[in-house]
Amino acid sequence: MENFSFLNPTRIIFGRGTQSEAGAYAAKYGKKVLLHYGGGSIKRSGLYDQVVQSLSDAGLEFVELGGVQPNPRLTLAKKGIELARAEGVDFILAVGGGSVIDSAKCISIGVPYEGGVWDFYDRKAVPGKALGIGVVLTIPAAGSESSDSSVITNEDGPYKTGLSSDIFIPKFAILNPELTYTLPAYQTASGAADMLAHVMERYFTNARDVDLSDKLCEALMRAIIHNAPLAIKNPEDYNARAEIMWSATLAHNNLVGMGRVGDWASHHIQHELGAVYDMAHGAGLAIIFPAWMKYVCKHDVTRFAQFANKVFGVEYDFWNPENTALEGIARLERFFESIDMPIRLSQAGLPDIEANIPLMAKKATRKALQGQFVKLGAEDIEKIYHLAM
Amino acid sequence: MENFSFLNPTRIIFGRGTQSEAGAYAAKYGKKVLLHYGGGSIKRSGLYDQVVQSLSDAGLEFVELGGVQPNPRLTLAKKGIELARAEGVDFILAVGGGSVIDSAKCISIGVPYEGGVWDFYDRKAVPGKALGIGVVLTIPAAGSESSDSSVITNEDGPYKTGLSSDIFIPKFAILNPELTYTLPAYQTASGAADMLAHVMERYFTNARDVDLSDKLCEALMRAIIHNAPLAIKNPEDYNARAEIMWSATLAHNNLVGMGRVGDWASHHIQHELGAVYDMAHGAGLAIIFPAWMKYVCKHDVTRFAQFANKVFGVEYDFWNPENTALEGIARLERFFESIDMPIRLSQAGLPDIEANIPLMAKKATRKALQGQFVKLGAEDIEKIYHLAM
User: What does pTM read for this prediction?
Assistant: First the structure.
């Protein structure tokens, strides 16, 4: 097990009706709130009104900025930074999914910084101060509600780049599974693929002697694989919704990655897809992850066999463990298919995908080789895109 | 799944050599430290000198109070409170195991409180302020390094009573598995029993639809059961020591108990033993838990059968699940025996134990019935003590 430092200070308020507590928690940290959200769904569902009421009950002033899109844009975050400065905002309440929260994180470090906020994502500066953030979560997927990461798309590239920092881990996150009842099946499934990918990125490691964290990863993956189809089949199954909502948070709060180095190549490979095609992150991962697995499987057949056996219950083939390993990858593909995720680029309706592969592969490696489990260059990534076709 | 609120803000600094960081972390919170510890073992091992050096390197002043005993005493904590007040201490560094940390927590809330600190444990007051606490852990067992609980023995009873509060959750905890190499086998085993009990208290619940947390509990239990014997067999097995050290923390930071109501009767039943006989907490739990299980098994055979199957790999008897359930309890006893834990009161050399049972049972229920899975009165608890004979 490798040395590690773990910090996860977000207070999780979980369960039915908890969105009414947003104002009271926000009031612990600020007086004037930037209410940040995406499209109109929170207005249609009534959540917007409930949150506004809660802020008002807590005696808080607020200004608002909606319009966050999937693959959140730098331009909107910059607008948020200007608005927050002009209005003297001292706390941000993100109401939405990972995109809204990631955008809020970008704003939180941009407000007190004199330079352009992209400096942080471009590794030209390290954030030293941030406004506090609270979350009312509506999409279980990215885990951003208690993670230390923010992924922003700079339209001027386009580049989709992640940043990690303890400084913008949310102060609190309100998770009410009922708020996810209205998620379309595609988004629920895409979220499940995303959270599963967060665990798999950590699971595929070269670290040895990581028994407990292996087992915790396997527990999370099995819970996601068991409950996501239930939630898709019956969108108002509170318990299935609750299991995947809590799974999404634990999949990406770093807990299950402690003492080991994760891989993350699949995320980078998918980010380039997301930057060009603006596709749902989870759907992209459902395509890329199995292809990545096929490409790197021989690097550690034992680990892939353990994945197959412990996560999907594939019987271990003592005489040919590679069979077990490959069957695990096949089962993962079948799981994604069972929740109507695409598993091939050719299924995803992406114009000119073949022609774009070389450029996406080049952009994925523009800063460094990708992946820790296996280091991948642009040629490797091209091959993975082709395996995913 | 039940509504819950989860907060676990302790920064964990885990791995080889990390004790040298104690001063730097303490300096984030205070200027004058109370260095709190137990007997002479940290002086013999050199840890005391390393920590003092680290405090000095960080420019911190300190005063010290050693002498914390297992089942930490109110009298010593009161002495610490007086010392901290007299010396203007603003931070407590606990170097030791659960007893030292629990004593530090008692001191932390006693210093700013005008009344007697037992008021909090006796539920006559609720702590509103506390000094910050940091930990250098030497015994993986109690999980107090990031838990919200403190158990203190008031010699004037004797009463052994626990208190939970977010306010004294440690700011940071330094966990170096190397510091546990010198633990005697008995203490390692007793620690393993303690951490396993913390998970089992949460596992045996009447809450339904707790799939993820069941799986996380099972992952932790299997990791403890696999690694504790390795650490006992080879005390310098870094990886086994690391697995149980991290397991102990996760077993009691509330994570695996979210969305469910734990039982905790076995802890209360053991606390009375600890108060009268001053026996190692884990050893007492190794005796009490199986007896409690036998007494309550019929209340939920399915849950006990799941425990047997998922934790000990007992094949599920579809036609007679109670057989599976009972075999799980038997396997737990065998596990405790394999690490040289007592599993019967009669093995533990406790003078007048038979005669003391009625009084201990009465004291265990002096405030209320015990247990949430099954509510137990004094008569039930007497029977459990007898089952444990």
Answer: 0.95
